[in-house]
Amino acid sequence: MMRGTGVGSALMVAALVASCAATNRYVLDKCAVETTVEVPHDGDTVPTTLCSYSEEGDLAIGIRQMTARDYADARKSFESAVARTDGNSRRNAYHALGVACEMLGALADAESAYKQANLLDDKAKYERDILRVQKKLGKSK
Fold first, then answer.
1. Which pLDDT belongs to residue 28?
2. Dihedral over alpha carbons 69, 71, 76, 81 (to 10 degrees)
3. Distance (Å, rounded) from C-alpha 116 to C-alpha 95?
4. Which of 133, 137, 128, 140 is nearest to 110 (CA)?
5. How far is CA 29 from CA 51, 53, 55, 106, in A?
6. Which residue, among 24, 78, 23, 89, has the nearest Cα to 52 in the 3D structure?
7. Series of mean pLDDT values for 10-residue runs along the chain (141 residues)
8. What's the pLDDT score for residue 22?
9. Which of 89, 101, 108, 117 satisfies CB 3.0 to 4.6 Å to 95 for a cystine?
10. What radius of gyration do the chain's Cα atoms show?
11. 3-state DSSP call for residue 79?
């Protein structure tokens, strides 16, 4: 029988915690609802993937509306999701809001939403979206 003290027990606990964290990370990183939107740019399209980690809520509803090309209602859903969520879900909601606004031609609103998503992301991965909209607005070449 194992005792609850010593280096061996500490290593077993550390391994168990690491295993649980890895499992939870996989589950949290998997999109429950996603779609790829072909955003027009320079006579071509840029595929942009939208993701919700939950099957429910305004973000998931908005992504389904984007799949149906109902950009106006998707925008409303994403605006609601931004107000009601935090963390990665809020970042994803801002990004999705930017895509919906861009598809509707509301480029200044798209730029603002992309910038908010970028502020919430540690890798600044939405910079390309910001630059694409700025080019459409005539702010960059």
1. 54
2. 70
3. 8
4. 133
5. 10, 7, 14, 30
6. 89
7. 53 50 50 95 93 94 97 98 92 97 97 95 87 92 67
8. 41
9. 117
10. 20
11. helix
Residues in the chain: 141
Q: Taking phi first (over 0 means left), then psi (-120 to 50 degrees means alpha), and beta for anything else, what does residue 140 get?
A: beta
Burial annotation 85-111 (CB, 10 A radius, 16+ → b, else e): beeebbbbbbbbbbbbbbbeebbebbb
Q: How many CB atoms lie within 10 A of CB 65?
A: 21
- CA distances 111 to 5, 24, 27, 70, 72, Å, are 56, 33, 31, 20, 17
Tell how strand 33-41 and strand 44-52 pair up. Answer: antiparallel
Separation between Cα atoms, residue 64 and residue 33, nearest integer Å: 8
Q: Given the structure tokens 């609601």, which residue do they identify? A: 80
Paired tokens of 33: 């609802």
Distance between CA 141 and CA 123 in Å, rounded?
23
The pLDDT of residue 3 is 52
